[in-house]
UniProtKB/TrEMBL annotation:
Belongs to the class I-like SAM-binding methyltransferase superfamily. TRM61 family. This is tRNA (adenine(58)-N(1))-methyltransferase catalytic subunit TRM61. Catalytic subunit of tRNA (adenine-N(1)-)-methyltransferase, which catalyzes the formation of N(1)-methyladenine at position 58 (m1A58) in initiator methionyl-tRNA. SUPFAM superfamilies: S-adenosyl-L-methionine-dependent methyltransferases (SSF53335). It is found in: Nucleus.
Amino acid sequence: MMFHEYKNVIEDGDTVIVYLNHNSMSPLKVEAGQVYNNRFGTFKHDDMIGLKYGSKVVNKDGKGFVFLLHPTPALWTQVVPHRTQILYLPDISFISLYLDLRPGKIMIESGTGSGSFSHSIARTIAPTGHLYTFEYHEIRAQTARKEFIEHNLTDVVTIEHRDVIANGFGKRNIADAVFLDLPAPWDAVAAAKDALRKDTIGRICCFSPCIEQVQRTALALDEHGFSEIRMYESLAKDYEIRNIPQPDIDEVIDGQRVSFKPVKSDKKKRKLENDSACSGTDTDANGSTVKELTVTKPTDVVRGHTSYLTFAILAPEEGDDIDMSE
Ligand code: SAM
């Protein structure tokens, strides 16, 4: 079981994501002889072993069902047991892009917290890169270490129980990028500078909820020789996908009445939408064909502020040996 590789079949000991619906998922370690209970009934782990990932599994009474998904960092972020506040996908993907993360990169992160960010980074830089992550809360460090072992991430992630503000990272000139999610990131900027490579452009991102913290971090970055200091905020807006009836243009021209209202009860309509999702057609109350159009519509809600993302780069100085391969 790997979070950065995929396999087809569920085996004894695997972690699966039990999917009820888009808003209801939970992690489950599959163990022979065990049972899993939820509001839809009791599910035997033995019935899960040997199924393909993505399969539907039915409960003991043959009525309720759930889907068993292969874990991914994106799903893990939705189900991870929270020990701290965590980073979510809109911020994680933005940071990964701006830190230029890709396979082979060496990254330093502090604090590890609940390991939400670490799981995504591990997949992004695997198999040849490495994430060194630091956490000063001992129980959190132990819990994250256990999860990294269970998720087979130890070839890509090393966690250390360490106060990075008091003791630095203990690494010099190795990191392509540093990410700080700490209450006082400005106090770790000097240590970040030590850890970053000097033969190429080093990148840093600091995650802070309030603008006063951003100002202090920006001052510290400037004092330590970082440049291109920029701050962003990632505000995500979700889009829903819907099928809507598409009027026939000839009928409209002929002046026939065209109904835009759902022609079936909600339940029947949903079934039709699922059944006809690929065909793009539906039938109206008289059984004649109504063309459907699949459209996306933004939801009214924009997810609120999480944090400000302050980025900067550390360029090689005169006299530094520059790696031209980058
Ligand atoms: N980014 C993480 C995630 O996505 O799960 C969450 C990080 S959490 C908000 C911040 C963490 O930094 C906490 O777990 C805290 O214990 C840790 N921390 C705070 N000060 C620290 C320090 N000086 N050295 C190391 N870790 C520290």
